[in-house]
Amino acid sequence: MSSEVLYRKWRPQTLGEVVGQEAVTTTLLNAVRTERVGHAYLFCGPRGTGKTSTGRILARAVNCLNSQGGEPCNACEACVSISEGRCLDIVEIDAASNRGVDDIRSLRERVNYAAGTVRRKVYIVDEVHMLTDVASNALLKTLEEPPPHVMFILATTEFHKVLPTIVSRCQSFHFRRLTLNAIAAKLKLVCEQEGIDADDDTLVAISRAAGGSLRDAENILQQLIASRGKRLRLDDVRAALGIGDEALVLKLVASLVSRDLSGGLRVLHNVSDEGIDIRNFGRQVVSTLRDVMLVQSGCDDIVDGGAERLQELRAVARGTTTADVARAARRFSEIAARDAFMPLLALELAYVDSVIADSGEQKKDARQEGGASATKRAGEPMRALEPGHAHTHQKTQGRVASQRTGHPAALSPSQLASPVVPDAIQAAGASHDANETAAESAAGVATAAVEAARTAQSLEDVDHGAPQAEEAPAEMELGELGRVRSTWKEYVDSLRGLGSAGNLDAFLRSACEPVSLEDDVLVLRFAYEFHKSKIEDPKYCHVVEERLQEFYGRPFKVSCVLETPAGAPVSPAPARREGLVDAAVRMGARPKKQD
């Protein structure tokens, strides 16, 4: 085997050999075949998807002497010189290291010279987003109206950082992240040509570890060949890359679905003991939870893997709901997204949090369903109190009220607010079918109790002002503020590591809580002036508002207030305005004593 690295040796030489970018290559083939090639192209997409390789192929295609159907022949003098890097008219520029305005000025001077050995001079500018703003602006005029013998091919992995004025002067092509099957097929071809013995499961594991980049997959394959030889097996790949066994991942997900706390923690302990990379295992868990969610949503056709794995995912999906899986995937992805100090502990906490939170959600749903059914049951007997359903007799009311509950006026407001009224109503509804007189009596009790409760409530309003609504539990809060409060802990955790000292989350963790939301202004209440002043600092406030928009998907403005903690005594307001004597005493004067 040649000492040349695999990704360079097996770089595509024609547009048809570019993997997974059929939309791009078809358009370029038609443009070359019909001689309608543009003067500037912008290739954008993830790393290792073929942007630079496609640019080199396009440079050969427009200068090929024997082009057939838009493809370069790779045999003529122009194609050979370009492939070997001997052609001086094909210039590759790394914008990451040549990003200044002086480099662009030098390029502008060279473009005016005609091509020496080929028909068109081609400039391939890689990582064009790294150019400074001044350099990008200096390139605009040349990019808009270059000489007829010049063509620009720009490539970038971060399309959003390229100036819009540059984008508008180019034909943009977006390269997609390669699929698992496309990478595995290319690796299988390379192994067959290189004499490497590797089964399909091994190639799929390598492709999954590459994350959609063919160059990364070929580099991983080269590394495995150097360490394991020409016979590769799945266990060798897992040991070399620190990838966990798929069975362990599915076992952890199954324990999560069944809410087996001890079983899931034991799986994580075994993963750590086997020397598996905890971060890679966390990514595998997130990927598997995503597949389970897709299976639950009826998207089996887009799940990677064979029929056996699909059956295992279906078995796991039957024991849970999509909401639970999405919640767990969100928690594990938050752990996998940051470099935790103790990765195993982070995974364990994410697992415990998912199990406990799922149980809490079920209990909350049960309470809500129970409350709804109770309300429905209480509402049905109320029809007995409507006109036409019950005939109230004052004597019967008085007799039953005195015998069972006493006169309603003798009840306290707290007793009237208790479930006596619903009980009376239910009694009325239950006895209506059996005895009309008893139903009328119970209905009379309920009516009198309701009227007495209204009277008592009116008296309380007069004595204590307007009634204050009882504060609802956090899990029952509705609206945007309720959503912010229920996920406030997760939002604060996402701030970990930010700030000048990396402790911005500490200012919002225990001494702060969101109290109100008006339009886009989120009011945060602080218990201490120190924490409030820190968040009001513009350099911290900007970070908090920016992360709020990323976390909740909408912009927020933060307003900070300092209030007395709950339960602390409130000083009474002054009974009268301060007079001249009071003001003088406050300023240090002493009243003159009388003789």
Primary descriptors:
alpha/beta, 27 helices, three-stranded mixed sheet, 595 residues
Number of strands: 10
Please work out how many helical segments DSSP would assign: 27
**Can you give the helix content as a percent range?**
40-55%
As a percent range, the share of strand residues is 5-15%
Shape field: flat
Structure description:
The chain is of the alpha/beta class. The protein contains 27 helices and 10 strands. It has helices at residues 6-9, 22-33, 51-63, 77-83, 101-110, 133-144, 164-167, 180-194, 200-210, 214-228, 234-241, 246-258, 261-273, 278-296, 307-317, 322-337, 343-379, 394-404, 413-416, 420-432, 436-464, 479-486, 488-494, 506-509, 529-536, 538-552, 580-586, and strands spanning 40-44, 90-94, 121-126, 150-156, 171-174, 197-198, 231-232, 512-518, 521-526, 557-562. The protein has a 5-stranded parallel sheet with strand order 2-3-4-1-5, with helices on one face. It is flat, with a radius of gyration of 37 Å. It starts with 5 loop residues before the first helix and ends in a 9-residue tail after the last helix. The model is unreliable at 374-477 and 568-576 (pLDDT under 50).
